[in-house]
Amino acid sequence: MPVLTIAPTEIHESGDSALRVVAISEAVEDNWLTVHRLADWLETCGAEGLHAAVPTYDSVLVEFDPVLVSAGQMRAFVKLGLGELGRSPGSSLAPREFDVPVSYGGAFGPDLEKVAEYQGVSTEEIIRLHTEKTYTIRCLGAPAGSPMMDGPAFPKPVPRLKDPRLSVPAGAVSVAGRQAVIAPAVAPGGWCVIGRTPLSVLDIRREPLVPYKPGDILRFRRISEAEFNALAGQELVAREPGGDAMSGQILVQQPGNSVVTDLGRFGGPRYGLPVNGALDQYSARAANILAGNLDNEPLIEITALDFRMKAKEDILIAVTGAPLALTVGGRPCSQWEPVSVRAGESVSLRGIHSGLRAYVAIHGSLEVETLLGSAAPDTVVGFGLQLREGTALATKRSVGPIRQPYFDLPLFRLGLEKPAMGSDLSVDVTDGPDVAEFGASGELLFSSEYTVSGRSNHIGLRLGGELPERTSNGEVLSRGVPVGAVEVPSREELLVLHRGRGVTAGYPVLAVVTSTGLDVLAQARPGDKVRFRKTTVAEATAAHRRSRSQLETLRESVNTVFGLLGIGCRPQWQDLPVAACS
After folding, report:
1. What is the DSSP letter of 490?
2. Phi and psi, residue 54, nearest 5°
3. Which residues face 332 on adjacent strands?
């Protein structure tokens, strides 16, 4: 990128785990260059607690761990970065150019005629305007690294669909507002689809997953249906040339609805991928700690349905999350503490209630594939391990049956405070960066009761109830949205974005659910009642730190007990004086 004038910026809190940095110069190019240079600087500076910097057209969403770094400290770090930009030269890398063949209208572009009618021109004119422009990729957005660009020179901005599609095909070429985009993967969408490219854009075996980056150039070229069929499946390419050994296995006997996941793909948002990962982060962290693992090791997430697996070797497990009936070899066992499983025994989790998700961690963790360093499934790009009957999972370490060394009593009573669960949920939120757009009606969020819809999933929770309304109807420029964003995308439902959310969106963010509140919503079942409670970023950060502190205390206890029993090391209890064992 060239040397630039640093645009003035505003920094807004966006929940307790994110900042939105907005460039506010009248020079649009300066805004774009500033936010992308800032994102590049943040990604390479090595700041403790920084998860991701997601640049868009005129803003950067800075996501961080509030336990490791406060919002104030991250704000100061962002300001430091802005100062550094003014003293460093821009990148000398030339943009690459991509030629994108597109078949317009008909089944390829079902909204072409609608867009033409709205603009008051012919479909041929829409195609001409769309293909005559040279596009600069402004950012990578949802889904899955979509190249987001300034739109063609249509007479008027294109309104989004009133009823978004549940499925837009990969390769769809769409417009909305003054923006244009290509969909790399199948996903829901509310943009107007005017055509489709036959080229394959996304490859989850490649890093980065898409061949382009912000600043690269795209040109669209019209093709016939016959040409489309001939090119189908070819890759989009630039025009320029030039640990531990496996020692065990578990066999899934009844999968229910289960996946292997971890805490999330924190490097994904920069490339337009959602962070995903375990929806109830507290329960997932606790399970791994109780199993003697690092917080972010792969584990099993089970949603709603019964699950059963069989151990081929001796293993040690921990089960957390929603209440359920846990049995090992037919005998009842406790959740929220380590449990020994002998070779040949089956582990059953049945009757999940008062919550929706449970987590199974196995000492030593699991051998699974990763994408951008994470095992978290991504349904949009087709990555991840959905467990099936007969799936065999390789474990990294076998652990013999653990009993109390002198009296053969049950060993583990670690006293972790379990999160409260039920059907009436209180969820803390902070003001969103766009709260002013809702005026007085924004208070309805706190005075109303909402019901969880059965259409909720890992992408977001849909809630029925009395809805706040925007005071304006203008199109919103797509910007980075934090996990937990509360939006009102339709007249029927409130939407709370969760960990599978697209990293960019064009709806105002009324509020942002706190990090601890997201864990509460992860356990919300269809029909549960939700009330929102306003809090401050400072209070939300303090609550998150208290929660993490409890887990650190648990880790110390587990490390002490495991060390004494020789789990992963020589048994240290043998070194205790006799009096200590009396």
Report:
1. S
2. -110, 100
3. 327
**Pairing verdict, β 450-452 and 299-303:** unpaired
Task: Say whether pLDDT at 582 is over 50.
Answer: no
Query: What's the per-residue H, E or C state across 47-105?
Result: CCCEEEEEECCCEEEEEECCCCCCHHHHHHHHHHHHHHHCCCCCCCCCCCEEEEEEEEC
Write the CATH number for 136.
2.40.100.10
CA 238 from chain centre, in angstroms, equals 29
**Token couple for 551:** 């887990």
pLDDT of residue 4: 59
- The domain tally of the chain equals 4
C-alpha 86/C-alpha 97 separation (Å) is 28
* Residue whose tokens read 């089956």: 346
Asked whether residue 387 falls in the same domain as residue 256, the answer is yes
| Euclidean distance between CA atoms 280 and 518, whole angstroms | 7
Domain ranges, residue 80: 9-85
**What are the tens digits of pLDDT across the range 373-417?**
999 999 989 999 999 999 999 987 777 666 554 444 455 667 777
CA nearest neighbour of 136 among 158, 123, 155, 152: 152
**How do residues 89-132 score in pLDDT, each as one tens digit?**
555 457 899 999 999 999 999 999 999 999 999 999 999 999 99
